[in-house]
UniProtKB/TrEMBL annotation:
Co-factor requirement: Zn(2+)
Organism: Cyprinus carpio
SUPFAM superfamilies documented for this protein: GroES-like, NAD(P)-binding Rossmann-fold domains
Protein's recorded name: Enoyl reductase (ER) domain-containing protein
PANTHER family: ALCOHOL DEHYDROGENASE (PTHR43880), ALCOHOL DEHYDROGENASE 8A-RELATED (PTHR43880:SF3)
Length: 372
């Protein structure tokens, strides 16, 4: 197309410093280099990890930056050596690569990849940092093809963009990392989009009981849609919620998934598991505090796992997302039910504030879509 090999100027929401509102600025997007593609963004979601970076992490070294990592769009142009994409293809950029060549991609034990994305943005000759794959822009980042999943032409971009992070992360944590089995008892801590997707994963895996745990009871009705059977508000009890779960399940749940990104909740999720075979999966993201647990919790036979982007060891990032897309198109995975608002990019601060204060129906991590 006409933009191939050229620097593009476009509008983007720039984070200049921690806790400050995002500012709409004109930025320069570098042309595609070897193996890279350029994507025009059509829709994006707002993820709580963006909120963490902007308001909670307060990493001054990461500013100024353009946030966003849950986008979908159309390939505008491709650089030399690109074989997997052509202009006009629909695509979802990923924060996790799949090069197929590094030791992690070749290992059947992980879906991690050792190769990082290259993102080149400038604003008035000032280099911009990046977090994720930069979807808060009227043009997507120039990104290597190893970190992009091609999707069907008939896929609705304002829905499938959520597969770029939240839905894949929560759903995959349940069906892949935890390995929920039919007839099992599960508990999901935190009912943002990741947590609700985890509930959906437990349901589709055949769990008989799914405890939805959150301090925001307004989200419980939403959780029913995705398969939750029981609902607990930790603030409603005068004892630790792990003890409540233990009493209600004769010793603890078979699988627990922490989808908050809070180290205290992570420990609670572990303590809520039954001994010997209980599995706890850490799904929420945080890097603020260290995590601790009593050794007896693990010595008794419980398993503590982490999950990143669906956690499938055999299916890597790009392949995994394409499978989730098939599941959505065939009705196995819900996406439409996660959308609570649609806004323009210029309203991004309103979207961030709604997510920050928990005013949206989906609490903590929610869906923010825009159509250009």
């Amino acid at each position: 197309m006409a933009t191939a090999g050229k620097v593009i100027k476009c509008r983007a929401a720039v984070a200049w410093e921690p806790t400050a509102p995002l500012m709409m600025e004109e930025i320069e997007v570098a042309p595609s280099q070897e193996g890279e593609i350029q994507i025009k963004v059509v829709a994006t979601g707002v993820c709580h990890t963006d909120l963490y970076h902007l308001f909670e992490g307060k990493d001054k070294c990461g500013f100024p930056s353009v946030l966003g990592h849950e986008g979908a769009g159309v390939v505008e142009s491709v650089g030399p050596g690109v074989t997997d994409f052509k202009p006009g293809d629909k695509a979802i950029p990923l924060f996790l690569s799949q090069c197929g060549e590094c030791k992690f991609c070749k290992c059947p034990k992980t879906n991690l990849c050792d190769r990082n994305n290259r993102t080149i943005f400038h604003i008035i000759f000032h280099p911009l940092a990046f977090f994720g794959n930069v979807s808060f822009s009227l043009w997507q980042t120039v990104i290597n093809q190893i970190a992009v999943a091609k999707i069907d032409d008939d896929a609705p971009l304002d829905r499938v963009c959520l597969l770029g992070c939240s839905i894949s992360t929560g759903y995959g944590a349940a069906v892949n990392t935890a390995g929920v089995i039919p007839g099992s008892v599960c508990a999901v801590f935190g009912l943002g989009a990741v947590g609700l997707a985890a509930v959906m994963g437990c349901k589709n895996a055949g769990a008989s009981h799914i405890f939805a745990v959150d301090i925001n009871e307004q989200i419980f009705e939403k959780a029913k849609i995705f398969g939750a059977t029981d609902f607990l508000n930790p603030k409603a009890y005068n004892k630790p919620i792990s003890e409540v779960l233990s009493e209600m399940t004769s010793g603890g749940v078979d699988f627990s998934l922490e989808c908050v990104g809070n180290t205290e909740v992570m420990r609670t999720a572990l303590e809520s598991c039954v001994k010997v075979w209980g599995v706890c999966v850490l799904v929420g993201w945080t890097n603020v505090k260290d995590i601790s647990a009593r050794p007896i919790q693990l010595i008794s036979g419980k398993t503590w796992k982490r999950s990143l982007f669906g956690g499938n060891q055999v299916l890597k990032a790009r392949t995994l997302l394409q499978n989730w897309l098939i599941d959505y198109m065939t009705g196995k995975i819900k996406l439409d039910e996660f959308i609570t608002h649609k806004m323009s990019l210029e309203q991004v601060n309103n979207a961030v504030n709604l997510m920050k204060t928990g005013q949206w129906n989906i609490f903590s991590l929610t869906s923010f879509c825009r159509i250009l």
